[in-house]
Automatic annotation (TrEMBL):
Protein name, per record: Protease
Family: Belongs to the peptidase S33 family.
GO BP term, pick one: proteolysis
Organism superkingdom: Bacteria
Length: 529
């Protein structure tokens, strides 16, 4: 799905505003076939991470940083390399190895996430070095960018009356993204990120991968299980993504889920004196729709010289709805907009509107000099949405032509609007952004099934606005007997941070190998004091 960052560290941040002497067998690298037909990756699997204290004023003192080097193109490992940023909290007890985290997105920068929200995972340091990373194209790891390309559609190019004009816009935006993202863009996507995970596993000294993935991170974990089944250790997928639905259907599911979450927020808001939409939930929901429409037709200026549109408002609300922890902050931000025309608090949920131009930071050619990682202050401000689009498009094989899209747009527009009068257009725009980009891989739909791995734990939350519970069930059936489902009968996106019951069961599995029975559940009553 078009997933967003996991809510655990985001909630805090938004609220606060190698030894080459090893043999190939010991390194965990499969031996080359006799005919030598597979590329030689031994130099990448011979690495060890050199850890040092993380630089930066916001970095915790006990957080260590490092990097691993991976091939830009796994089929041509001598054509160029990328450095990937890592960060870890050391194990406080006797370590059983490392536990890699992915916080979602796609496009979430794991180093910054771990620095901001590491307290959530300190219990896991009883048995693991807890490690976050910036995947290729994300954060400090050769970040992609779309420069000044807009992900919104001009009002004078209406989807229903002139779809071909809209698609010309989208293709121009895709060309601009390619210009600003450089050599990493054709090699972005989950299949390559999964191979990077295996290089990290070996560089960390682990025979098997222990992994905790949220939202999009569940897609990455499932792809790893398909690619490297014998190297799966203890693996948890929380907020399970779909492996089969096309982006068009994912967008509808996302719009419907966020509409339900918005209605829950509004019902909560009108009970508070500070709610800017009055005291009646029905009229308040209508007020939200009117506010979005008003800003789309007459945007307000921001402190950055840009216009704040209705779709910018939708983007901010969509981020805030992933956790109830953010509802009070969202209420105050909406009040500032409605009462004073002040957009600053809402922009805090999205990180801003526009992105700077720039070159291609972080790529190092095979004959290049030292470098690779980008300084944190050089990461483009649009890296998260640019990476989200790039990765989702790289993972999706559907590329209907302009005529097919034009024929379908009327139906799609109605379907999305029916799913959500607030989020429908926003989600439809996201779906269209793959037009003009190369066709994505078939691997995830065709090959990620019936994995022969150790047992893995899948957590699905009934009221999840981003990854509906049915995706957990469908993905578990697709993965086969290895998948064990934990049913979190609660609200919010993912369960680890919001449910003490889920937290306990996930930690018990990761630390001690204690799996709950398949189909067991956690209920809201289990999280009460």
């Amino acid at each position: 799905m078009l997933a967003k960052l996991s809510t655990r560290s985001m909630a805090r941040r938004r609220a606060m505003i190698a030894a080459t002497g090893l043999t190939l067998a010991a390194a965990g690298l499969p031996a080359l076939p006799a005919n030598g037909s597979e590329p030689d990756l031994s130099r990448f699997y011979g690495q060890k991470v050199a850890w040092a204290r993380c630089e930066g004023v916001e970095m915790p003192e006990d957080l260590q940083c490092g990097k691993v080097t991976v091939p830009l193109d796994y089929t041509k490992p001598h054509a160029g390399t990328l450095d990937l940023a890592l960060a870890r909290y050391r194990a406080t007890g006797k370590p059983r190895g490392s536990l890699l985290l992915n916080f979602g997105g796609p496009g979430g920068a794991g180093v910054a996430e771990l620095a901001a929200g590491g307290d959530e995972f300190m219990g896991l340091t009883e048995g693991y070095d807890v490690v976050g990373f910036d995947p290729r194209g994300v954060g400090r790891s050769s970040p992609v960018s779309c420069g000044d390309a807009s992900t919104e559609l001009d009002e004078d190019a209406d989807l229903r009356t002139d779809p071909h004009a809209v698609l010309r816009q989208v293709r121009q935006a895709a060309d601009t993204c390619a210009k600003h993202s450089g050599p990493v863009l054709p090699h972005i996507g989950t299949v390559n990120a999964s191979r990077d995970l295996d290089v990290m596993r070996q560089a960390l000294g682990d025979k098997k991968l222990n992994y905790l993935g949220f939202s999009y991170g569940t897609r990455l974990g499932a792809v790893y299980a398909a690619q490297f089944p014998k190297r799966v250790g203890r693996l948890v997928l929380d907020g399970v993504d779909t492996l089969t639905e096309p982006l068009s259907e994912q967008g509808v599911a996302g719009a419907a889920g966020q509409q339900r979450a918005l209605e829950d927020f509004v019902t909560w808001c009108v009970k508070d004196i500070g709610c800017p939409f009055g005291t009646d939930a029905r009229s308040a929901r209508e007020d939200v729709v009117r506010l979005v429409e008003s800003l789309d037709s007459d945007p307000v200026a921001t402190d950055f010289g840009e216009e704040f549109t209705g779709q910018d408002l939708v983007g901010a609300i969509s981020q805030a709805l992933y956790s109830k922890e953010l509802w009070p902050a969202l209420e105050r931000a909406l009040a500032s907009l409605v009462e004073d025309g002040d957009t600053r608090a809402l922009l805090g949920f999205t990180g801003g509107i526009s992105a700077p131009g720039g070159g291609v930071p972080g790529f190092r050619a095979a004959t290049g000099t030292d470098g690779g990682l980008v300084d944190q202050d050089e990461v483009p401000v649009d890296n998260l949405p640019a990476a989200l689009m790039a990765i989702n498009c790289a993972d999706d094989p559907d590329r209907p032509g302009a005529d097919r899209i034009a024929r379908d747009l009327g139906r799609l527009h109605a379907t999305y609007e029916d799913a959500s009068p607030v989020f429908g257009r926003y989600r439809l725009t996201e779906y269209l952004m793959c037009y003009g980009r190369p066709r994505g891989t078939d691997f995830i739909r065709e090959k990620v099934r019936d994995v022969r791995t150790a047992k893995m734990l899948l957590v699905g939350t009934r009221g999840d606005p981003a990854t509906p519970y049915r995706w957990t069930v469908e993905t578990a059936e697709r993965l086969g007997d290895a998948a064990v489902v934990l049913d979190n009968r609660s609200e919010g996106h993912t369960g680890y941070a919001s449910s003490r019951c889920v937290h306990r069961k996930v930690d018990a599995f990761l630390l001690y190998g204690s799996l709950p029975p398949d189909g067991s559940s956690c209920g809201p009553e289990e999280d009460r004091d």
